[in-house]
Write a structure and sequence with these properties.
With 247 residues, the protein is α+β, with helices and mostly antiparallel strands. The chain has a single domain, classed as 2-Layer Sandwich (Pseudouridine synthase). The protein contains five helices and 13 strands. The longest helix is centred in the N-terminal third of the chain and has 16 residues.
Length: 247
């Protein structure tokens, strides 16, 4: 398994995780390092690893400060170093507003233990979750260019809705999660009725662009402060399979 290194110093390593790779496999490849955060198996992009306990605690504080900032205006939280993450995603449908904020706690789905849920019906402890988004592009694909391939199950269009002659609508978004809940982006986009394309767990019957054999979610960049006090921004290029669709 080849892993591209995006940033490296004596305390912190930033890598580009491929889609389809479990974070547990990343841990096995770097057994002496500590995962600073996690990405879902099908999500690609930037991941941070700490090379020692001091670096891990330092990054952990920055992730915590990002969450505290939501509740604090001024004061200590605004003076702390904070993690800033940016993702890109292709979602089903035309998102109406050019930008917006989803502020909806996330709990467990009562129907599927693998899934989480925002809004009505969520069970268990509800955890605060905030996601900002911005529409980068809205586009339409003709129906023949839509197909489920590879390990993504064959899609069955509901009542033929997305096979209309005018084609199928998608939106390309920049997404900035302000909290780090499990499946947060996927759950919040599902709540917005614009689920991530090709997401076999939260959007199994939705249209998927032909040639896209993975979930359409990518961790584009992450900003953090290293142990020298330097602000670092690490970026991962847009996956080629995304670029082909967006041309």
């Amino acid at each position: 398994m080849k892993i591209k290194i995006l940033y490296d110093d004596k305390d912190i390593l930033a890598i580009e995780k491929p889609s389809g790779v479990l974070v547990d496999d990343i841990s096995k490849k770097y057994p002496k390092f500590i995962l600073a955060h996690r990405l879902d198996k099908e999500t690609s992009g930037v991941m941070l690893l700490a090379k020692n306990k001091k670096a891990h605690e330092f990054l952990k504080e920055q992730f915590s400060a990002s969450a505290i900032e939501l509740k604090t205006k001024g004061g200590l939280a605004d003076k702390k170093a904070r993690i800033k993450k940016a993702y890109v995603a292709i979602v089903n449908g035309f998102v109406k507003n050019d930008h917006g904020i989803i502020n909806k706690p996330i709990g467990r789905s009562p129907k599927d233990f693998r899934r989480h849920l925002a809004g009505r019906g969520a069970r268990g402890k509800l955890r605060e979750a905030v996601t900002e988004y911005r529409v980068l592009k809205r586009f339409t694909l003709p129906a023949p260019s839509l197909r489920r391939e590879g390990n993504i199950q064959q899609s069955r269009p509901a009542k033929g809705e997305w096979l209309k002659a005018e084609g199928v609508k998608f939106s390309f978004l920049e997404i900035r999660p302000k909290t780090g809940r499990t499946h947060q982006i996927r759950v919040h986009m599902k709540y917005l009725n614009h689920p991530v394309a090709c997401d076999s767990l939260y959007n199994p019957s939705g249209p998927c662009p032909k040639g896209l054999k993975r979930m359409a979610l990518h961790a584009l960049s992450i900003e953090f402060t290293n142990l020298k006090g330097e602000k670092i921004k690490v970026e991962s290029k847009l996956p080629k399979e995304f670029a082909k669709i967006l041309i």
